[in-house]
Specification:
Length: 139
């Protein structure tokens, strides 16, 4: 793939969907709107200042994904960042720290959300791989 070109359209659309998702997540964290999907750990104790920090960090994801949507060479970094996020969320889901604030409640809701993010990761990885194959075997 040439480094300055746009990603294939399906991958580009999937990346722009990520930009929209991360922008919504940033807004939810900034304003303390604890909705599942936008706020993975929506029902645990939190400090508002922490969520403001998370909102700024999530803007970095939006920028990373926007860059990847505009520059094919940025796609691997976005995919790696999302993969690390899935691993990090998984580690939190099994952590004693999370268990200590759940008072015996299930982590199923967090695993579902982590699974959805993992599915998005898999879609991006598949679309990227398909684009790589297509660029090596032009028809």
């Amino acid at each position: 793939m040439s480094t300055g070109s746009l990603p294939p359209v399906p991958l580009r659309l999937a990346l722009w969907a990520g930009v929209a998702y991360f922008c919504c997540m940033a807004l939810a964290h900034f304003f303390g709107l604890k909705y599942p999907i936008l706020f993975v750990y929506y029902d645990v104790p939190f400090y508002a200042y922490q969520d403001k920090i998370i909102s700024f960090a999530v803007v970095a994801y939006a920028c990373l994904f926007a860059n990847a949507a505009l520059h094919r060479s940025g796609v691997p970094a976005a995919i790696v960042a999302l993969g690390v996020t899935v691993l990090g969320l998984s580690a939190v889901n099994v952590s004693d720290a999370l268990g200590s604030v759940l008072d015996g409640r299930s982590t199923l809701a967090y695993w579902i959300q982590t699974g959805l993010i993992a599915a998005y990761f898999a879609v991006l990885l598949g679309l990227y791989a398909a684009g790589e194959r297509a660029s090596r075997n032009p028809q």
